[in-house]
Amino acid sequence: MSDKNNTFNILLVDDEPILRDLLFELLSKEDYQVTTVENGKEALFMIKKNPDLFNLIIMDMVMPEMSGINSYEAIKSICPDINILFMSGYFQEQYMQGLEKSDHIGFIKKPFRNDDILRKVREHISR
Predict the structure, then answer these.
(1) Within 10 A of 68 (CB to CB), how many other CB atoms are there?
(2) DSSP string of the chain?
(3) CA-to-CA distance for 67 and 64, rounded, in angstroms?
(4) Does residue 11 contact residue 58 with C-beta atoms inside 8 Å?
(5) By the 8 A CB rule, do 74 and 42 touch?
(6) How confident is the model at residue 68 (pLDDT cuts 50, 70, 90)?
(7) Looking at residues 95-109, what average pLDDT do you find?
(8) Which of 22, 27, 88, 118 could form a disulfide with 32 if both were Cys (CB 3.0 to 4.6 A apart)?
(9) Distance between CA atoms of residues 32 and 91, nearest Å
(10) Angle, helices 40-49/68-78, rounded to nearest 10 degrees
């Protein structure tokens, strides 16, 4: 049974429209308030516009224009304690070097099952 709470706001950042739509639907069914954007620049704009709105950012690591790591670094300067859940099908250790020591950062490898992403979301929102 999932923890449903409509006060949790998630910013979902992924350049793949199909995955964005599927995750939006999955998370919305769990009563999370989800805002979607397709790249890091849009995510940074949303954070600048509403720095205290989001409890969690779910972000692809490999995106055109601005990578997930570069986006995170820019967002962290505005919201240093924001929880980030990175996702990637191209995970490589160098992406996470220096980041794994933070309690605010997590990772899930694509493809993932619905149960796995929901578990990770619950873990990171509760931090």
Answers:
(1) 23
(2) -----TT-EEEEE-S-HHHHHHHHHHHHHTT-EEEEESSHHHHHHHHHH-TTT-SEEEEESS-SSS-HHHHHHHHHHH-TT-EEEEEESS--HHHHTTTTT-TTEEEEESS--HHHHHHHHHHHHT-
(3) 7
(4) yes
(5) no
(6) confident
(7) 72
(8) 27
(9) 26
(10) 10
Tell me which residue has tokens 């790249």. Answer: 39
Contacting residues for 28 by C-beta, under 8 A, at least 6 apart = 34
Nearest Cα residue to 66 out of 96, 93, 45, 97: 45
Contacts from 112-115 at CB under 8 Å and sequence distance 24+? Answer: 112/87, 114/26
Task: Please report the pLDDT score of residue 33 as a whole number.
Answer: 96
Residue 99 confidence (pLDDT): 59
Distance in angstroms (rounded) separating the CA atoms of residues 90 and 60? 10
Q: Which two tokens stand for residue 74?
A: 């820019």
